[in-house]
Amino acid sequence: MKRKICVVTGSRAEYGLLRWVMHEINDHPDLVLQIIATGGHLSEKQGLTFKEIERDGFQITSFVENLSGPDTEESISKAIGNGIIGFADAFNELSPDLVLILGDRFEILAAAVSAMVARIPIAHIHGGELTEGSMDDAIRHSITKMSHVHFVANSDYAKRVIQLGESPDKVYNVGGLGIENIFRMKNYSKTELEGTLEYIFQERNLVVTFHPATLDGDAWEEQLFELFLALDQFPEIGLIFTLPNADVGSDGVTRTINEFVSRRPNAKSFVSLGSDRYLSCIMHSDGVLGNSSSGICEVPSLKKATINIGNRQRGRTMSESIISCDPTSVQISESIMKLYSKDFQNKVKNAVNPYGMPGACKKIVDVVSGVSLDSLIVKTFHDLAGSQK
Fold it and tell me: Rounded CA gap, 64 and 28, in Å?
């Protein structure tokens, strides 16, 4: 009997990482792909990005709607609760043999809780990472403890998952899925991008991706003010903004970015570029500016620079092509000047991405197609102190 693998996706960024794994599962002779779309995929504000999944040729098996109301702490808590209820119904209907989830968002936490209670084995991708400036950090580690199989991006993250008490023989260092994206992407030319995006590339360009750091409260307002002060010092630079996912403060971030873009002739914002167009924009730009994980995990493999602002990504392993700075106009301006310096551009060209090489998708599918499911549910805590006696 074929093994049913249920992939849960709740945001455009996460789907961009998962889609090649989904293709591998779909093409595997012994697997059946189930897809649950939830969260931002079903939100008009986020661009109804479930349609991107369907355009890629996938059939979505189930929809779990959980978002409602404004981007407040209360609404996010309710979204988690609504998600748990919705996933309980979906898993009961689909009866998957294994649930495959990625990352650290609140939608995925809801899926993990429902699968755990239903005694469905969970395989988790990109555990063991740190993002100390956001609540995603706590969510990610919580999902690790509810999961049974772990696919991590490098050896440091493997050690951290084991440190959390997970069995080493269930932790697989497969590398980052973002690397796979880069090697399989459709590379849009600059002319194609200018036509579809209605954006004219300047001599110098930056892709800007800024999210609210959820543990900072309303600090995003001051941080964006400082960011815009810095960018105003470089009016010649073209700016492509990607708008944030559904998080506490995301509505305010979106509104503030759009106000800035409206008064800057060589800037444009997008709710969703899609993975290929996003990566292609970076390839035709000089680097990435903001606080997104993509600037840390993927952009170094494109041989482009990243300016990482603030503490949202603090704790992640970083390449030498990344400049970290405080969210002040002075430091951001200095970082932009450093990015364009000849010495730093030479460093970027020679930088190594610590998130590995392509091949993660096949490794993941090899494991989920072959791992014995019978003994996964009952876990033992792997005690590091005990193992060293």
Answer: 26
